[in-house]
Amino acid sequence: MGMRQTNFLTTRQLARMWQVSEATIKRWADAGHLRSQKTLGGHRRFELAEVLKFQSARGLEAEHRAGATEAVTHTRQSERLEDFFRAVTSLHEAEASAVLLNAHLDGWPMLRILEEVIAPALHRVGDLWHVGEMSVADEHLSTRTATRAIETLRATLRVAQVEMPLAICCAVEDELHEIATLCVQTLLESEGWSVRNMGANTPFFALTDAVRKHRPRLICVSSTSNVSLARYSRDYAQLQDIAREFDAHIILGGEGFKDETIRQRFPADLHAENFSSLKEMLQQS
Ligand code: B12
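Above: inputs. Below: predicted complex with cobalamin.
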């Protein structure tokens, strides 16, 4: 998009990722081995490029792995999925975050992290719950752990203050599944967008209000399990009107929008099958 985007990590994130103490990170920073900047509040921030340089110079990848917990020792694709799944289902938030951050620092595109690690791990959680091998309690806790890890990953995508195109995303009314929406937000942010995430259970009228107020270029809506979507098709027509007026594109995604009759009632610039189709569309326009 031609704009500068800088990724920063915090002391804590680095400590988790390399499996060392925060004091060690501070020591490296103070000794000038690892370049850092300080925020107005006096907190250290490490630029991604510096982190990568330091990591390979020190062989930290290999070094920490010998003594590290299993969850962060492997880097191959299927292993990342396994590691993330294991960390999430054993409720190890730091490890779940470390798996995602490591993938990111190894240069995996965000799309790949979302589609090959996060989504399949959560699908597996759903399958276990579905066949009664995971309790509702465990499923809730695992989901929270995954959400926190994705938020940690997102936090590394902090962006310099430049003009960025705006997107609004949400999940439809009565829809409590919001991780896909969070993933869409993360993907867009990694592509240089500024994103307002309205979260779960957002009625179309509220989304329409937000669009009128914030004038995004992109509107992304997710529906996973809502069975009564058709009820909202009139409200959706108003959203479409506003979108047309402001020249915003509407992208609909998720199982809830898969049905052909639903798609006819909810016309959109794109009915996305997955995050890849969103990315493809971004590249075309
Ligand atoms: C976590 C979870 C929950 C959590 C959600 C918490 C939260 N904060 O989000 C809670 C506990 C609330 C929950 C509740 C329910 N859940 Co639930 N849940 C899941 C689980 C395990 C993971 C969902 C998830 O985040 N997946 C990861 C995302 C990234 O993947 P995805 O949603 O498949 O999205 C992909 C595409 O669809 C697409 N996509 C989706 N949206 C969008 C949007 C855009 C813009 C784009 C571009 C792409 C896109 O891209 C993604 C990657 O390819 C799934 C299992 C599964 N298969 O997903 C079950 C699942 C979705 N749940 C299910 C069910 C049945 C329910 C309940 C009805 C259970 C109940 N009886 O109460 C309720 C419904 C609540 C409600 N009203 O919405 C079923 C749905 C079956 C169906 N098709 O109807 C599933 C599939 C489990 C199963 N195997 O049966 N659930």
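The mean pLDDT is 88.
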